[in-house]
Automatic annotation (TrEMBL):
This enzyme's EC code(s): 2.1.1.22
Segments of skewed composition (Basic and acidic residues): 135-151
Record region (Disordered): 90-165
The protein's name: carnosine N-methyltransferase
Lineage: superkingdom: Eukaryota
Native source species: Polyporus arcularius HHB13444
Keywords: Methyltransferase, S-adenosyl-L-methionine, Transferase
Protein family (similarity comment): Belongs to the carnosine N-methyltransferase family.
Gene3D superfamilies assigned: Vaccinia Virus protein VP39 (3.40.50.150)
Record InterPro entries: CARME, SAM-dependent_MTases_sf
Gene Ontology terms for molecular function: carnosine N-methyltransferase activity
Pfam families given in the database record: CARME
Length: 429
């Protein structure tokens, strides 16, 4: 579906999308440059220190990280090989934005490993899931956007910020969570209880009739929970607005043909808190299942766009109404992305059919707290969120706390554990 909105919104959307693509494209020089800093620092040390460090394999590790970065870059270039599927025209007449020294670092690294940067492939077919308007609160405010250029000169490409690159590195870790064997323990803690609650709620429905029940997964990330729900036989729609997530999930869902087709190295970007080389350099094979293996007749879609705009509009598209049309809503690490949690809960309540179920798991890391863009942010306690849900018309049951990590490097010496709140809520009024 083409992007809609005012001309200014469409232009902003396209610029943002182009900047995300640019971030993917410039991952290699950016990451190699960061790694090359270690090499340069090494050469400033006294000879005796260098010899000792070399005997530990420190230099070899730096070289191995370069190689892993190039493997990541090959994968990321495949993900963005065909951005037209997202309905945007990209300006091809751009040069990568490389600072003099970044360019040198990446040229050296590419030469060292005799590993040319993967080119863009244009052999992909059209999309197989639907896309509508998309808005994101990812950084729109960079000052390095495309600018006018004199006739005949190539314009400089967007210069990704550290924040952009952080989102890209997080996308690699999110691939572990959703699409690798290593991510299974995290998925077992987060997605399994949610699927169990869903099956419990519909336990009197025969499996072959589940396709008549519509489940929505807002903030679907890389799509695994939504895919799992479709695999159980329900009609399932994921919704997501981050271009990083949408590009990566589209590739995983529609362009992978084999289990373990790709290898990525998601943990090579920080040398801190690693007990050994494996913690930093272990390869992760993706995907652990074949995304195209959903049973025949499955009803599975991913819709791109802002949850509140798409599902919260009171002026509904009659061909795609939402009010009272969903039998279940599953929110995993999602409700704290709200600026106004009242609106999120009202929408979830309104789109559910009477007796419909909302299953929630997650912390309350209010995403908009302390924002610098003057956006409003309401930050409730867990008790307040549950009281609010009751006031809006839910009956909450099955409450518990689930201790879980989120895209954690399982081998790191540092790990965050969320005491995530779980509940099943039924729409009673
Ligand atoms: C913390 S992640 C959780 C992803 C996934 N549910 C999981 O458990 O791995 C929250 C996701 O919600 C998405 N998101 C945040 N606000 C959104 C909105 N208003 N509409 C759609 N997606 C949104 C973010 O882009 C992000 O992918």
């Amino acid at each position: 579906m083409p992007f809609t909105g005012t001309d200014a919104q469409i232009e902003e959307e396209q610029t943002h999308f182009a900047n995300v693509i640019s971030t993917f494209q410039q991952y290699a020089p950016y990451a190699l440059y960061a790694n090359n800093r270690r090499r340069k620092d090494f050469h400033t040390l006294p000879l005796a220190d260098r010899e000792l460090l070399e005997s530990l394999g420190y230099k070899e590790r730096i070289n191995a990280v370069d190689k892993a970065i190039m493997t990541n870059a090959d994968f990321l270039n495949l993900v963005i090989a065909n951005p037209e599927i997202f309905g945007h025209d990209l300006d091809e007449d751009e040069e990568p934005h490389l600072d003099e020294h970044e360019g040198e670092a990446s040229r050296q690294a590419m030469h060292r490993h005799d590993h040319p940067q993967a080119g863009l492939h244009n052999s992909l077919q059209g999309p197989s899931h639907s896309h509508s308007q998309s808005h994101s609160h990812e950084s729109h405010s960079q000052s390095h956007g495309p600018h006018d250029h004199p006739h005949g000169a190539k314009k400089k490409r967007y210069k990704p910020s550290e924040h952009d690159m952080d989102k890209l590195r997080s996308t690699l870790k999110q691939l572990v969570r959703d699409w690798s064997v290593e991510g299974k323990s995290e998925r077992d803690l987060c997605y399994e209880p949610m699927k169990e609650a869903l099956l419990q709620h519909f336990s009197d429905i025969p499996a072959e009739e589940r396709r008549n029940f519509r489940v929505l997964v807002p903030g679907a990330g890389l799509g695994r929970l939504a895919w799992d729900v479709a695999n159980l036989g329900f009609a399932c729609q994921g919704n997501e607005f981050s271009h990083y997530m949408l590009l990566a999930s589209f590739y995983m869902l529609n362009r992978t043909a084999q289990v373990n087709q790709h290898t990525i190295f998601p943990y090579v970007h920080s040398f801190s808190n690693n007990p050994n080389n494996d913690a930093l350099l272990r390869p992760i094979a993706i995907p652990d299942v074949l995304p195209s293996s959903l049973p025949d007749g499955s009803d599975f879609s991913l819709v791109a766009g802002d949850f509140e705009e798409i599902y919260g509009s009171l002026d509904e598209d009659p061909s795609e109404p939402h009010s009272g049309q969903w039998d279940a809503v599953l929110t995993c690490f999602f409700i704290d992305t709200a600026k106004n949690i009242v609106n999120y809960l009202r929408i979830i309540h309104r789109i559910l059919a009477p007796g419909g179920v909302w299953v929630n798991l997650g912390p309350l890391l209010w995403h908009w707290e302390g924002n610098t863009s003057n956006d409003p942010s309401v930050e409730l306690t867990l008790e307040e969120v549950k009281t609010l849900a009751r006031k809006i018309g839910f009956e909450i049951s099955n409450e518990r706390t689930i201790d879980t990590t989120y895209t954690n490097n399982a081998q790191s010496m540092l790990g965050y554990v969320y005491h995530a709140a779980f509940w099943t809520a039924t729409k009673i009024i």
